[in-house]
Design a protein that fits this description.
The strands form 2 sheets. Strands 1, 2, 3, 6 and 7 form a 5-stranded parallel beta sheet that branches. The protein has a two-stranded antiparallel ribbon with strand order 4-5. It has 9 helices and 7 strands, in the order αααββααβααβαββαβ. The chain has a single domain (45-230), classed as 3-Layer(aba) Sandwich (Rossmann fold). The protein is 39% helix and 14% strand. It is an alpha/beta fold. It has helices spanning 3-16, 33-37, 61-66, 81-92, 98-111, 127-133, 137-149, 173-180, 206-217, and strands at 72-74, 77-78, 119-122, 158-160, 184-186, 194-202, 222-230.
Length: 232
C-alpha cells in the first residue's frame, strides 16, 4: 500500500473508530498531551552514551576514553509507565498514530545534542519480521522526526541481514553485543555523513552499536542514536 493511500485509510479509520489514549483512555488521541507531559523524562545531567548520572551533560570518563562507533543516544523518556505502554502499542499493537505523538519530544531531544545530523536512518527489521508485523515502527518514527527537523530519511541505507533475538537486560554486555554482531550492513555510500540511527527504545545499546559499526563501515563520519525511550 502506498504512503498516501495508507494515510487516507488511517484517517478514515480514525474517523470511524477514534483512538483512545493508552494512558488515561481519553478519546481522540493515541496518547494525550497530559499523559505525555507527566511521562518520566530522562535526567538532564547524564552521559550521552551510557546514560550514567553526571554533574553536567556530556560523556563519562569511560565512554570518552573508549571512543565507540556510536557517539551517543538521545532519548526524551525513561522506559516506564505510560511511555512503556505507548512503545509496546506502537511496536506490537499497530497503533501507528503514536509515532506522531512521540516524534515531537524525540526531535527536541535530538536538537539538544551536539550532533549536526544530515541523515536519519531507521533501524531495520529483518525481512521475516517485517512481513510478520507489516510495518517498521522505527521507520514511522524516523519519518515523523525528519518532517519536524527538515532532515532526510533513508530507510534503505541499512539492512538487517541476520535475524536476531530481542535484547534483554539480563544478558551480559558481551552476550548482547555478540547476538547482534554483523547483523547489519549498509547499502549506501555514506561518506562524510552525520547519521542518526532511529529506533523505538534503547534497551541495552547493543543494537544501536551494531548499526553504528555498519554505518561507519559505509563511510559515515559520525553516528548517533535516537529513540523514544531508554531503559535505565
Amino acid at each position: 500500500m502506498g504512503l498516501k493511500l495508507s494515510w487516507l485509510v488511517e484517517r478514515a479509520l480514525d474517523a470511524v473508530f477514534p483512538p483512545r489514549c493508552v494512558g488515561c483512555g481519553r478519546q481522540g488521541m493515541a496518547l494525550c498531551g497530559e499523559c505525555l507531559a507527566e511521562s518520566p523524562r530522562l535526567p538532564e545531567s547524564r552521559c550521552w552514551l551510557c546514560a550514567a548520572q553526571l554533574r553536567e551533560q556530556g560523556w563519562c570518563g569511560r565512554c570518552a576514553a573508549g571512543r565507540p562507533p556510536l557517539e551517543g543516544v538521545a532519548s526524551p523518556f525513561a522506559m516506564e509507565g505510560v511511555v512503556r505502554e505507548a512503545v509496546h502499542r506502537l511496536k506490537y499493537g499497530n497503533l501507528r498514530g503514536l509515532a506522531k505523538v512521540l516524534a515531537e519530544p524525540m526531535a527536541e531531544a535530538l536538537a539538544a545534542t551536539p550532533v549536526a545530523a544530515t541523515l536519519l536512518v531507521p533501524v531495520p527489521l529483518h525481512p521475516s519480521r517485517l512481513r510478520e508485523r507489516g510495518y517498521n515502527q522505527a521507520a514511522l518514527l524516523a519519518r515523523e522526526v525528519g518532517r519536524r527537523l527538515g532532515l532526510p530519511v533513508d530507510a534503505a541505507a541499512l539492512a538487517r541481514v541476520r535475524a536476531t533475538p530481542p535484547q534483554v537486560r539480563s544478558a551480559s554486555r558481551q552476550e548482547r553485543r555478540a547476538s547482534v554482531s554483523g547483523a547489519f550492513r549498509t547499502r549506501r555510500d555514506l561518506a562524510g555523513a552525520s547519521v542518526v540511527a532511529v529506533d523505538d527504545v534503547c534497551t541495552t545499546g547493543a543494537t544501536l552499536e551494531a548499526c553504528a559499526t555498519a554505518l561507519r563501515d559505509g563511510g559515515a563520519a559520525r553516528v548517533w542514536g535516537l529513540t523514544a525511550a531508554r531503559e535505565l
